[in-house]
Specification:
Elements lengths: L9 E4 L3 H12 L4 E5 L10 E2 L8 E2 L6 H5 L1 H5 L9 E2 L3 E6 L6 E3 L3 H25 L2 H7 L10 H11 L3 H5 L5 H11 L11 H14 L4 E2 L4 H13 L3 E4 L14 E4 L3 H8 L5 H8 L6 E9 L8 H4 L1 E6 L3 H12 L9 E4 L14 E9 L8 H11 L7 E7 L1 H7 L15 H5 L16 E3 L13 H14 L1
Parallel strand pairs: 1-2, 1-10, 2-9, 6-12, 10-16
Antiparallel strand pairs: 3-4, 5-8, 6-7, 11-14, 11-15, 12-13, 13-14
């Protein structure tokens, strides 16, 4: 990708969704913006590629994007004018439980509650009804920077008391394996022990988004999100240079404002002695979390789910009850590899036929593993799928496997295979990566952070870059 901007006054290092969003905001404000990316293509966690066979398009990392629709940043940008189209599956999520009908998370709170029956339907309504009624104010508040007084205080007050609990504690309100498992699977996206405080908040947020905006995918692959941002950036005079790894701030124009879409460990490596000792020490104490083991498959037909309701879900969780999901995630937190891991699966070609040749399909799944793990979890993942889709292995034409080391080679932000930009526990939710009302701003004049290691954290929402860009603009005024 050729450079078109000359003499940039802003350089963004890293072309993930946060770096690209920051670049777009600043270019729209009249800045001359250059984005520098080490990989051969832009996108970070939103890249797609033919990982298995020609004609099979796989999302290398992120695949399902509820935050893409909920994000104040992305929904304010004319990305549809630059080729981005959202595809909604029949239902956002199916959670499978051995020996029982799957729990289906519908767009409707009422339909979801009805499916959980008299045991757990009232619990689901009580937890999610008021959150969904809060509408945009709640998701905007959760994705906004820390502020005193907080933005959208009424909506946040509804969310706070249950959200601060552990998923294990809040999940005990459910009586059945189906209800508790459905909630536990949502919370397990945190990549934390489900006994940790605030893990309930992850489950509530993702469930609320499923009801309010859905869990869509980008037509043609997640790469289309990055492509739309790059196109919009170019329309405002900005540019992206790929295949250029930045090893030191000295390689960048000394007069440019610099935004780093990087985690603290990489910031230390690049900024070096430019960082004050105290600040560098805080960044060095930033903690990462478990990694992932991911498998992509090219199939000669759809996944042969035993229950046809599962075929209508864009995302499938294979994990069982709350106790089962929590036990598997606790194993990972303690450095062990669960025999029956919690598996997160996406089946995009069911709803987006552009992903595979006619009659063929792509499937994507991963489980959590200890950071830096070298254990091949492929058989364990496939065993979980096969248990609910007998004959799955017979449909495999090719597979592509990425353990933690491969994930980190793919994206240097995935330290030890950790995809969330740093542990998202309560401590690092408040201090991400350092404590303060302006965590995107460093003590070095003209140097800012814009990765998912800053608020509001992980997810394809662009909000970390959005906030960082507005810090740049506010600091310049």
């Amino acid at each position: 990708m050729a450079v078109v901007a000359s003499d940039p006054d802003v350089v963004v290092v890293g072309a993930g969704p946060n770096g690209l969003t920051a670049a777009v905001v600043l270019a729209m404000a009249g800045r001359r913006v250059l984005v520098v990316e080490a990989a051969p293509t832009p996108g970070g966690g939103t890249r797609s590629a033919e990982l298995t066979l020609p004609g099979f398009v796989h999302d290398v990392c992120s695949a399902i994007h509820p935050l893409g629709l909920a994000s104040p940043a992305l929904r304010s940008l004319p990305l549809a004018d630059h080729g981005l189209r959202w595809v909604h599956p029949d239902v956002p999520l199916a959670h499978v439980v051995d020996g029982e009908a799957p729990a289906i998370l519908h767009r409707s709170v009422e339909d979801t509650a009805d499916g959980l029956g008299p045991e757990d339907g009232p619990v689901w309504r009580a937890l999610f009804g008021s959150l969904v009624d809060a509408g945009t104010a709640l998701s905007d508040g959760l994705l906004s920077p820390l502020a005193i007084p907080p933005r959208h205080p009424v909506a946040l007050a509804r969310f706070g008391p249950p959200g601060i609990l552990s998923a294990s504690r809040l999940g005990r309100r459910f009586a059945s394996a189906r209800g508790s498992g459905l909630f536990a699977g949502l919370a397990a996206h945190s990549i934390l022990s489900l006994r940790a405080p605030a893990t309930a908040g992850y489950g509530l947020m993702l469930g609320m988004l499923a009801h309010r905006v859905g869990w869509p995918m980008a037509e043609g692959g997640s790469q289309r999100i990055a492509d739309a941002l790059v196109s919009l950036l170019a329309a405002h005079g900005g540019s992206v240079e790929c295949g250029r790894e930045v090893r030191s701030l000295a390689e960048l124009p000394s007069t440019a404002t610099v935004l780093l879409d990087l985690t603290p460990r990489q910031v230390i490596a690049i900024a070096g002695d430019r960082l004050p000792d105290r600040y560098r020490g805080r960044l060095a104490r930033f903690r990462y979390g478990p990694g992932v083991h991911k498998v992509d498959w090219a199939l000669d037909g759809p996944v042969p789910w035993t229950d046809p309701a599962v075929a209508g879900a864009g995302t499938v969780h294979l994990g069982g009850s709350l106790a089962e999901v929590a036990a598997g995630e606790e194993d990972v937190m303690q450095g062990r590899h669960p025999e029956r891991p919690f598996v997160l699966l996406a089946q995009p070609s069911r709803f987006d036929p552009s992903r595979a040749p006619d009659g063929r399909h792509t499937v994507w799944a991963y489980c959590h593993v200890p950071a830096g793990s070298t254990v091949d979890m492929t058989d364990r993942i496939e065993d979980r799928i096969e248990a609910h889709a007998p004959g799955f292995r017979d449909r495999i034409l090719a597979r592509h496997v990425m353990g933690p080391a491969a994930m980190e080679r793919y994206d240097a932000n995935y330290i030890g295979g950790h995809i969330n930009g740093g542990a998202g526990d309560l401590r690092q939710f408040v201090a991400r990566p350092t404590l303060g009302l302006h965590p995107w701003r460093t003590p070095v004049e003209g140097l800012y952070l814009c990765s998912s290691s800053t608020p509001p954290g992980p997810g394809v929402h662009g909000m970390c870059g959005w906030h960082a860009a507005h810090e740049v603009l506010a600091h310049a005024d």
